[in-house]
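Rotation project, supervised by the postdoc (A.L.). Task for the rotation student: set up a whole-complex structure prediction and record inputs and outputs verbatim in this book. Inputs entered:
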Amino acid sequence: MKLDRKLKICIVGLGLMGGSYAQALSDEGYEVGAVARRRETLDFALEKGWIAHGETEVTQEYMSRFDIVVFALYPHIFVEWIEKYQRCLKAGAVITDVTGVKGCIVYKIQEMLRPDVEFIAAHPLAGSEKSGIEYATKEIFRQANYIVTPTEKNTREAVEICKSLGETLGFKTVTTLTPEEHDEMIGFLSQLTHCIAVSLMTCRNTDGFEKYTGDSFRDLTRIANINDVMWSELFLLNKEELLKQMELFENAFANLRKAIEDENTDEMRSLMKLSTEHRKRFDKEGK
Amino acid sequence: MKLDRKLKICIVGLGLMGGSYAQALSDEGYEVGAVARRRETLDFALEKGWIAHGETEVTQEYMSRFDIVVFALYPHIFVEWIEKYQRCLKAGAVITDVTGVKGCIVYKIQEMLRPDVEFIAAHPLAGSEKSGIEYATKEIFRQANYIVTPTEKNTREAVEICKSLGETLGFKTVTTLTPEEHDEMIGFLSQLTHCIAVSLMTCRNTDGFEKYTGDSFRDLTRIANINDVMWSELFLLNKEELLKQMELFENAFANLRKAIEDENTDEMRSLMKLSTEHRKRFDKEGK
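Outputs recorded:
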């Protein structure tokens, strides 16, 4: 099986991410179906032309149409779905996901899944502070990275289908990592940064401060506008790795604080020079 | 004395900030002169039409032309300049600055200054990761705040001139704070955020991570590209206040870490909800 327009794709969960997948794939000429909890969500997607059809109930009749199923659900709901409905999937189907943590999900799903269906995990590093299909747009993929996280259980064929899916969706880069490498990376680049933003935004009274702020505070707290249900779940699913990354940051922060306390200008300047040098690699927009 | 185009303005120090002041004021029809260390800097500004004339040496003959002098220098160089050259200033002149800390500078300068010259301090909350006149542009003022920090020694007239200067430069908002209020605000909104960015950028090896990052990490570390000479000086000049703000942040971060360790979802979610609510006030671009 290779990814081509003859394959029918189902998106389970039409939120910001599922809706954006549906739009991108329909625009690329795929027949896209969907399962969503609410009829209004399906109507919205139908009206936009992002799906060809959709259901609010999971049935074998509907699911057996699809060669590829993308789960765009909260992690625990994804696991529940597989437990309850995997019998409805078409034999030979390839399923994938959008979950922001991998180690705790990938092996679990692969373990419980029917042998005639293959799960190849992926993490689209795109999003928005907003949630819901009304904010969905395939534009969020344009400058973003898509990470496929295969395990030993995956076939080369499924990995290739999943990578092609990332390219078809319009991601700027498509790469692969092990689930463990992924979780370390995400613990640092994404979860730690959200912890910092939340802490900064809640550490003191800031009434009236908006009149005085420059861009730096606004940049550091953009992601302090956070979906509490999703992120508290993601934090716990990557707890050990996240705590490690938090500790690394705490140590560095304490080190800088000591340099300031000691009025150790040499140490401050050397940290700042290192910081400037490291940041250069992240400089180019869209890299 | 009120701010009008008959007044002649001198910018001492033509870096990113001084150059941007010169451009904005010349474009508004003022006769702007400058003192800079290097002839090339003056030539650059002359060629751009940002200054009418300039000198590399400070002389009484030159300085006595100016009704208003803006010091766009590193803090300690500003103090040294006043010690060495204040005799050259015109009687009745109003002087102002762009220094990012106030308590430790304002009273000191006012104390040492000739009685026939008035110092009214201001902080333009604008800038760039880049430094030097080649990056100067009055555009940096457009969405930015300008804070005047008068003391009991200041006349209402000088405060008004300084506020008018902020408006003439094109700042979005012009406000006043006491030097102490200013330093608390800046310790939190600007210095703490730079400490966080530097710590995040230096806390671990990040080789190759640029391939996987989304916007959040890039946003949080934009200011990790930092002028080490200037910021290490500013940190120490506001040491006590900055350390207080760092402690508030450390406590909040440790609190969130404990919630994750304890798998206390309620606490995590309530912090995230508070964070989201607080962030709303900082939402609108350019507010």
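Student's summary: Strands of chain B lie at 8-12, 31-35, 53-55, 68-71, 94-97, 118-119, 122-125, 145-148, 173-176.
Supervisor addendum: Chain B has a mean pLDDT of 95.
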